[in-house]
Amino acid sequence: MPQITPSQTVPRTASATVISAHNLTKTYGSFNAVDGISFEVPAGESFGLLGPNGAGKSTTMKMIGGVSSRTSGDLAIMGLDPDRYGPEVRAHLGVVPQQDNLDEDLRVRDNLLAYGRYFGLPKSYLGPKADELLEFAQLTDKAKARVDSLSGGMKRRLTIARSLINDPKILLLDEPTTGLDPQARHILWDRLFRLKEAGVTLILTTHYMDEAEQLCDRLVVVDKGRIMAEGSPAALIREHSTREVLELRFGSERNTTVAGELEGIGERLETLPDRVLIYANDGEAALEAVSARGLRPITSLVRRSSLEDVFLRLTGRSLVD
């Protein structure tokens, strides 16, 4: 694989802030899609916005990308206001939209060449760059293929390759793996991790907890346009959950009634429609305590705490609601 080293990447230092938002707000009539959020992203970081559909993640990405103006608050991308300097900001951004918008009438390689022309890049640069990006995306053997013949995972990798044609400083990824099968997701994660290693700043929106844990150095949990928590995935789990979770299923008709008999086991109890969650530092010990009370669940599972548990604690609902 060729070395992906964007020539315009900002050096990875603690002092280099490439995105700064303060009290950022976006209002549609009386609806606050983004409600006064603040965050900063240093160069080279992989930063995530985690939340359910409708939380305000995509709206925030559109404001960062300079395609949607903010209602109020301050926003700077590489020191520039995207509302005032939209073209200058967008020239240094790579954008991977939620839905692939590849040109179905062009071949795979031609998609990269045509997109590069929008940035005014010369043919002498675009040819070698397109070949490099196809190799990076593992699509070299598909260079002359029609786009509509590609699988969903291949189309997603081509969309990412296209977003890198201008050597962006920041790569915006809106729900990058939605609809992909597990194998395609892991291949895509590998490509994104390589970009991160090369120093590209990644801004990622997702409602997949495992994706956020895999890719993000730091993230904000967003719900109803507001930031509920901020930190690294591990720090958020330590702060808002326990080390392990015991999942118990007694049947949809019994979960709620049995929950009362589980009080006092573990540190916290959560009753969901399909299961009961017991948060404990030792899940096996919690399961033994359940058995000692004469309770026999249909199924039981001890697992480590996840970001979805954090979201349940903060909002009382699932990430995929």
General description of the model:
The chain is α/β, with parallel strands linked by helices and 321 residues long. It folds into two domains: 17-232, P-loop containing nucleotide triphosphate hydrolases (Rossmann fold, 3-Layer(aba) Sandwich); 241-315, 2-Layer Sandwich (Alpha-Beta Plaits). It contains eleven helices and 13 strands. It has helices at residues 57-64, 86-90, 108-117, 123-136, 152-163, 182-197, 209-215, 233-240, 255-259, 283-292, 307-315; strands spanning 17-28, 31-42, 46-50, 72-77, 93-96, 170-174, 201-206, 218-223, 226-231, 244-249, 268-271, 276-280, 299-304. The strands form three sheets. It has a six-stranded mixed beta sheet, with helices on both faces. Strands 11-12-10-13 form a four-stranded antiparallel beta sheet. It has a three-stranded antiparallel beta sheet with strand order 2-1-4, with helices on one face. The longest helix has 16 residues, at 182-197. The radius of gyration is 22 Å and the shape is globular. It starts with 16 loop residues before the first strand and ends in a 6-residue tail after the last helix. Mean pLDDT is 90; it is low at 1-15. Belongs to the ABC transporter superfamily. Pfam families: ABC_tran. Keywords: Antibiotic resistance, ATP-binding, Cell membrane, Membrane, Nucleotide-binding, Translocase, Transport. This is ABC transporter ATP-binding protein. InterPro entries: AAA+_ATPase (IPR003593), ABC_transporter-like_ATP-bd (IPR003439), ABC_transporter-like_CS (IPR017871), ABC_transporter_ATP-binding (IPR050763), P-loop_NTPase (IPR027417).
